[in-house]
Amino acid sequence: MQFWIFRNAKFTFLQWRKKAYWVSGVVLSLGVLAMVWNVIAIGNWQSYGVDFTGGTRIVVELPEGVVEADLREALGGPEAPPISRFGAENEFTIRAPIEEGVGSEEMANRIRDQIAASPAISEFEVLQTEFVGPTIGAELQQQALLAILLSFFATLIYLAIRFEFRFGVASVVATVHDIMLTLGFLALFRIEISLPTVAAVLTIIGYSLNDTIVVFDRIRENLMKKGGRREDPLTLINRSINEVLPRTVLTSGTTLAVLLSLLILGGAVIRDFTIVLILGVIIGTYSSIFVASPALLEIQNRWGTKEEAERRKKQRSRRKKKKEAIPV
Fold first, then answer.
1. Which of 115, 120, 146, 154 is the S-S candidate for 70 at Cβ 3.0 to 4.6 Å?
2. Under CATH, which architecture does the 13-39+137-318 domain have?
């Protein structure tokens, strides 16, 4: 049973596309400014974690009854390095970034001493110690970028085969938009970029594409119907978006409900990962309606076939004549 707002929905989404362009443009500009400021303030356009910049990674096993908050307090409270769950419930990973003038061994010993000095932690065991060099971090950055670029290429090929080439181009435009907005958000709030964060960004790409494909699939179905090719593209795309609107809103709503639960109950371990996913779901839903669909319309209007262009010209001429024929 659909909500009353979705019954016979006739929202004119594409008529709002210019306002959506302004919204996206302003948010993207804020993100770019944040990236530039980060380069000046911290020497990098994003706040990279140990996975990408190098540092010391230590896995410790704590006694029963000692929780993550005790370990975080022992390592400096709010200033503590990133801590996450590892394996068993009482095993944790500590990622300490590289500090100028401090060697890896010295950093590892400092962490051990801080934990040992905590009154809340009577004993502990170091299970693993790893040192990640800056070279490995740089390679991970390149591999993450390569993974994103390959996803673009695969998307373009897949949609070009399944639909038409213009659908693939429009979906890539929307995906680039989503990633740029997400990266701008990460730069603005200096959320640490780690391997889980990259995984969240790749998940966003998949979610955004899935939502876009649902809309495009309905557009294609309506194009294949009798008279679909002769229908005004703006009217057809608007109608297609309205037809899948219940599915889009309900899917996004249930996904956000789960993610908000994770954000509230999941703790600091998966907080950044969950925040990025929440942001991605919102951006992906927005872009499938206000970026991907308008991009498809713009591509169609500019580079459509001659027959389609001629047909649209005749339709506009007929509408103009009808308006002129209406007595004032």
1. 120
2. Up-down Bundle (1.20)
CA atoms within 13 A on the CB side of 32: 7
In the chain, where the domains are located: 13-39+137-318, 55-132
For the segment 139-159, the average pLDDT, to the nearest whole number, is: 75
Q: Residues 318, 250: contact at Cβ < 8 Å?
A: no
Helix ranges (H only) for 163-266 are 165-189, 195-224, 233-265
**Which of the 8 DSSP states describes residue 270?**
G
Distance CA 249, CA 211 (A): 10
Q: Is the pTM of this model over 0.70?
A: yes
Q: Quick one: pLDDT at residue 28?
A: 92
CATH number of this structure's domain 55-132, picked from the four choices 3.40.50.150, 3.40.190.10, 3.30.70.3400, 3.40.50.300 = 3.30.70.3400
Whole-number Å distance between alpha carbons of 230 and 312: 8
Judge whether 159 and 167 are in contact, CB under 8 Å. yes
* pLDDT per residue as tens digits for the range 87-121: 667 788 887 777 766 667 777 888 888 888 888 88
Q: Are 191 and 276 in contact (CB under 8 A)?
A: yes
Hey, CA dihedral for 189, 192, 198, 203, is it positive or negative? negative
Q: Which H or E run includes 136? A: helix 134-162
Beta-strand (E) ranges in 21-82? 55-61
Q: How many residues does the chain have?
A: 328
Alpha carbon 83 to its chain's center:
23
